Amino acid sequence: MRVLTEHSPHGFTITAANWVANHLKSKPQSTLALPTGQTPLSLYAELVARTKMRQMSLNSAYIFNLDEYCGLGKADPHSYSAFLHQHLIDPLNLHSKNVRLLQGDAPDLQAECQSYDAEIAHHDGIDLCILGLGTNGHIGFNEPQSAWNLRTHRVNLSEETRAVHARQSPQPWAIPTHGLTMGIQTVLEARNVLLLIAGANKRGARDALRGHADPKWPVTSLLSHPNLTIVELS
Ligand code: GLP
């Protein structure tokens, strides 16, 4: 595990962006798994800015997202698809043929998960999986005590996760009770994992990473990953 600790939000953003840019330089056709949430926002803005300055490009990459709320499609502004479109895909004008996002409003969610896994396999797995971190240690929507040998699947969202999401939303809305997520197996099979950690409310989960693999803290599944980089804001 490699840990890059930054002491300012700007340093955090630049270090994460440099890391992603270097990765894409070494393999422009990378398959990426991308997170939603507050933590990656400044990274996405920086990647967009560098692309506009022609310092890098995501045009040859293939993009998956990590998770989605059940019942929400791209047209819903609360959906993770809408988030990724707003902050990365649309500003970069990425071609739809290079993007596959989870469809939380698919009529058959099990079929959607199978089709997602088939698409990941078709692309020979994930080259770079970028992760945020839940306050309860979740990665994607893999909640505490979830199995670590699953690929894409439907999950019950924990009360803690739903409460955090409710607090983060400027307007109240009915937070879904279920989500779809890439499983920990898929994450562990990614050739590189970049874990972004920022915020005092992540301290418990961050501390768990100093211990051993523990299903109470899904993020600790990454301790066995051979190419894990953590960029953290102290
Ligand atoms: C959500 C998402 C995760 C995300 C995490 C952290 O629950 N399912 O994919 O990484 O929360 O979000 P934030 O970066 O806003 O703290």
Explain this structure.
- The protein has 7 helices and 10 strands.
- The strands form 2 sheets. A 7-stranded parallel β-sheet has the order 1-10-9-6-2-3-5, sandwiched between helices. It has a 3-stranded antiparallel β-sheet with strand order 4-8-7, covered by helices on one side.
- The mean pLDDT is about 95.
- It is globular, with a radius of gyration of 16 Å.
- Strand 9 (about 190-195), helix 7 (about 205-210) and strand 10 (about 230-234) form a beta-alpha-beta unit.
- It has one domain (about 1-234): Rossmann fold, CATH 3.40.50.1360.
- It is α/β, with parallel strands linked by helices and about 230 residues long.
- Helix 1 (about 10-25) crosses helix 2 (about 40-50).
- Bound molecules: 2-amino-2-deoxy-6-O-phosphono-alpha-D-glucopyranose.
- The site of 2-amino-2-deoxy-6-O-phosphono-alpha-D-glucopyranose has 13 residues, from loops.
